[in-house]
Amino acid sequence: MLPQIVLATLGHTAGLTSQQQTGIVPDYPTAPAGNPFVPGWYADPDNEFYEGQYWVFPTSSYAYEEQTYLDAFSSPDLVHWTKHPNILTTKDVKWATKAVWAPAPIARNGKYYLYFGANDIQEDEDANGTLVGGIGVAVADRPEGPYVDAIGAPLIGHYHNGAQPIDQDVFLDDDGQAYIYYGGHSHANVAKLNEDMISIGNLTDDRNSTTASQYKEITPENYTEGSQMIKRNGTYYFMWSEGGWGGPDYSVSYAMADSPLGPFSRKAKILQQDTAVATGSGHHGVIHVPGTEIYYIVYHRRPLSETDGNHRVLAYDRMYFNDDGTIAPVKMLVHDNFADGDSVGWKMYGDKVDNWTVADGHLVGVCRGDGLAMLDTNFTDLVMTATVAVSNGTRERSDVGLVFRASNMGGANGTGPAVFDGYYAGISAAGYVVLSKANSNGTMTTLGQASAARLQAATDYTMRVTAVGSDIKVYLDSMETALITATDSTYTSGADGVAVHGAAGEFGQVSVDKPT
């Protein structure tokens, strides 16, 4: 059975304070305008909902010495994002010099607080007093800052229970008590924050309590770092990252408890790499659309073609709860409707491409020769669907369409002709549908061709290709009967994208998934 990929914006309104300003409930299976949902190298996102806007606060993913500032992004609908640069820099924190990590936002008492890690202190360095660092707290009058250091020193500047003071999350419970969850080096702690939000409270009522009673270890099985806490239907969900952040096995697991202090016993892993989509998926936040049961996991991941550990990008996908309150495994979906007006995550090829632009929810390619726009994916069996529109071409045979199982792309950034090894399914305004096998030497071999009623220029047609093993099918508008069926085993996996051949093409609602 083929997956039915539907991206809907539903008009729920009753009791939804989160939609008072926009009138939009962001009800999507994944980021509808594509992942990454913002450009740039970022990691460790956390999030809040402030004044009708969804806010995401990430780490700038560069070498530690270059991690000296924090940016933020805001959106009314999880589609259109505004960047707020340099909301906090090391110039505002006299004790921080590098490795400003994992901002955790929260608002209280009319102020906006941002908790962050800095300087990547190691236990021996801290014990010897050679480097000040740990978890700091900054405050601002607006979500976008500017934020300033609230106390002039780390809020948590030492190791307690073996936990490196990094990767904090701040959670405000229904009774008004705030908690900070944090920890690296495979140890996790929880502590209470006082109402001022800039000092650590006591976990007991003993006013003579010691440091030991301020920090409780809550380390679950396989914990590495990246603490996160949410509450749903009276249940506390403690979440964290496992594996190494620089490797492909970075992932997210969770535990459930009746108390914000635990105990937390690991339930399951819910987010991990998909070798068809991305690797290193972890260190996350959870976006809850207020007044609904709509949840997203916002996280960083590494594009498949990137080998630099710092080349991480921001993504979000839907997070579903089972009837018993457990969390279902998250599926990383591939989709782009270009509603955000950009083509982040796409790479262009071809020396005769006049222009690739985004307009009116379409990726537009105008080409005198051949041009490719490719996603960084690596699907084997697949279902690829898109709306495709073609204008009259500039040569005898001009068409536009979908590319799949592609590799060895040539002509990146206009350095030569757009060539590849893989498959291509195209349509022409002259009224034909074609399935071809491409070779990176520039040759195309026709595997099948069909006639269709003459296609109207600049009109969207829904095109779908399925490839399961060596069986390939091409559909146009009707998904009941394939126009072309072919058998070919030359290419078994590769990237996916769109192409223009001597024509102008428009592409929208591009999705790639595995058959089910």
Automatic annotation (TrEMBL):
InterPro entries: AL/BT2_dom, Glyco_hydro_43, Glyco_hydro_beta-prop_sf, Glycosyl_Hydrlase_43_Enz. Keywords: Carbohydrate metabolism, Glycosidase, Hydrolase. The record marks D167 as: Important for catalytic activity, responsible for pKa modulation of the active site Glu and correct orientation of both the proton donor and substrate. Residues 342-507 form the 3-keto-alpha-glucoside-1,2-lyase/3-keto-2-hydroxy-glucal hydratase domain. GO terms for molecular function: hydrolase activity, hydrolyzing O-glycosyl compounds. It holds the Pfam family 3keto-disac_hyd. One of its GO terms (biological process) is carbohydrate metabolic process. The keyword Hydrolase applies. Belongs to the glycosyl hydrolase 43 family. This is Carbohydrate-binding module family 66 protein.
